[in-house]
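User
Take a look at the entry that follows and flag anything odd:
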Amino acid sequence: SMRKKHDMYIDYEHFYRKHRRRGASKAFKVVLTVVLASAVGMAAFFTIKSHINFDGDKYSKQKDSAGNNGAEDKISAVKDNSAGNHAAGNDTPDPENAGINSGKNAGSDFMETVQTPAVTPVVQNPVDPIFTKERIPVKAKGIYVTSSKAGSEDRNRLIELVDTTEINAMVIDVKGDTGKISYLMNSPKAQGIDATTNQIADMEALVRELKEKEIYLIARIVAFKDPYLAEQKHELAIKNKDGSLYRDNNGECWVNPYKKEVWDYLVEVATEAAAIGFDEIQFDYIRFSTGQGIADADFGKEAGTKTKEDIITEFTKYAYEKLKPLGVFVAADVYGTIISSSMDAGLVGQNYVEMSKYLDYICPMIYPSHFGNGNYGIEYPDLEPLLIVRKVLNASKEKIAQIPEGEHRAIVRPWLQDFTATWIKHHQTYSGKEVRAQINGVYEAGYEEWLLWNAAAKYSVDGLQAK
């Protein structure tokens, strides 16, 4: 069902608690002032009470207009203002959904919003201030972290990687490829379909721990590959023409990007991730399925007037406008091949230029193994990691330049390959040397940020620069 105002609950309480102690001394002074003022006022009142027409009802209304109701309205407004894909790489979930923003404590400070009382003469109840994050960009050099690794002692190995190398960002699964949420998120929509898990036992504590290490935190949210939501709510799933559920080559259902209810669900999940302190929301599988039979699927009436590219761009804009006011950056993982192939762009619904107008970061998955023999004039791309990365990113630069100077353009932050593509004939073993070659390709093309994808979160330390 469509999101209603009261469905959208954002838990700002952890922000309030953080700053409550600081306000205690102020509160004491206010109370003391009020008591003294009351004593003087009462004396004056009894002296001249015969000349005063005291309207208790009016006083009550004034108090409400100056007090908590105003705060609740403001919180509602913030709620309403708030609003991925990994391609195959088998080791591989779809690397279209693996994206990372890196940063050292980016956006960890909160600024108070001071409320002016509506009626000055009336004493108002203390009102908790609302805190919003300031968006501080970070040049991310990141790694993908699975929810199982983040939720276990294994995370210490990955934290050590940040402590000892150039890595400064982590892309952590919040909503993974199965559609399940990796922690007990305070989301009515997710709870309503029992999508939350405790795979990461205390996500808020984890976020705090990583923030203390000055790690830039990116929440990976798999968008339209959501077999769980599709099975729970058939009306949101992609259907075959006979009305049955569409299933891809792995037998998994996808949700229909034309359904606005799906958009609101994704935005609610992203909003909750922002509320607990993630610096960036990265949508993965922000695309249509490319599985067998998808050409004959029924996407509903709207598909008759809007192309796949139209609807994915619309969702991107919608999510960006909802989430940016919350103080988080917004990113999307896209297929690397869409940069130069309009056919691929049309099939998956990802328009590189149009999406870049409504994102802070666009993260093309430019794994050398994912380009066909002969692409970009390279006989076997997997064997030429530096060359293929540089050529693809030079093509990216030309594409992004189609957005006029001065208009908003997403920063390009590519996903790089830290896995061996044994399923292709002309492949090589990827280790530190091949990882470094790709990173050098990024720099040679004039870009500064990158993310490493390994589906098991095992990375080639020897390819990274030491701190």
Notes: The longest strand covers residues 169-175. Residues 24-48 form the longest helix (25 residues). The chain has a mean pLDDT of 80.
